[in-house]
Amino acid sequence: MLLGMNRVLVLVLAVVFAVVGATPAVGSPHRRADVVAEWFDVTAATVAAAGAPTQSTNSRTWAIAWLAAARAAHDLPAAQRDRADAAVASAAHTALVALAPAREAELDAALRTTLSRLSPGGQRDLGVADGVREAGALLAEREGDGLDPASVNAPFEVPAPAPGVWQPTPPSLTPPQQAGNRRARPFLLDRADRFRLAPPPALGSPRDQADLAEVRAYGSADSAARTAAQTGTAQFWLQGSLVGYTQPLRAALDATGGSPARRAALIAAFHVILVDTQIATSDTKYAYLRWRPVTAIRATADPQWTPLHATPAHPDYPSGHTTYSGAAEVVLTAFTGPSARRPFTTTSPTAPGVTRTYRRWAELTQDNVDARVWSGIHTRTADEAGVVLGQRVARFGLSRFDSLLD
Fold this sequence. Notes:
Layout (H helix, E strand, L loop, with lengths): L1 H20 L13 H16 L4 H19 L7 H19 L4 H13 L5 H20 L7 H4 L53 H13 L9 H9 L4 H4 L1 H10 L4 H29 L4 H8 L19 H17 L2 E9 L7 E6 H14 L5 H21 L6
Antiparallel strand pairs: 1-2
InterPro entries: PAP2/HPO_sf, V-haloperoxidase
Protein name: PAP2 superfamily protein
């Protein structure tokens, strides 16, 4: 098998060098381009244009591309900056071409741009070889990990109706989604249920009643209690978490100094840990199968109650948005401290034309907790429990992340 992999490596290198060789070096000795930021933006554009329909699959794309880049540049001395830059670009390029082949032309052009600024031969060519090798090895390592769209949305039998038990929600009554995530192979977790949460509040308990009363009042489509500002927060964070955190992660990258390897490791750690967080979230969701607020409120209080936003097709407890936020906050804090270097502005595809400015990572977490209540699609307990789960997975992942670089 090793001989076969070596032959593939030689063939891929031949293609890469053919692409690179067409463009002469034009580097400037006075100002070096930020290759990690450049390929962060290339990755974001690639996933936006040719991403999968499932978020965890797209998180996997980011994780593979950037773990390969971090491995390829790992332990290179500062004097070999051309090699490190070439390794980062080549690893990301190789992984992204494999995972988003429809973007091959754009990716080839981006690689030519990056490598044209480096001196030909020598360190540049060694870096290209490093990147191709690490990406190829990681792609092989992650083959069949259960994070493809069909596996993520593997069929799951709807449970029999009963108080507290999840059922498909209106208006679409879509079958359960993302149940297969809990069967996927994590990057760092040893098992999906390592941090499974304690059960949600008992039906009819004071906490359960308070949760449903809050969602009923503040999360209804025609709420008189919800303010315009709260509605705006709900609308802004209706976007998917991967999309919503791409701009904050870019701000963290801008605030992170050090070598290309260290900055690539930030991106890799973020997405590796967020893949594992989504696996852990699915485990707890499908362990307890807690009904959504729309089902609970219609069954116990108001048969006509309608949430502000349509409810996603998976159980309430915990909120996937807030597990993502909790994990992201821990990872970003580990690399930059509790805030970015300067305030940053974010946008949202679910709130066109609206911008929000943040600095502290905890502000993003709090907005996600509130947004899902004000959207009428999660209880506050599910949101707050999600933050805890995400934080636990992230701390565990950070403590073991270096093992992925060896």
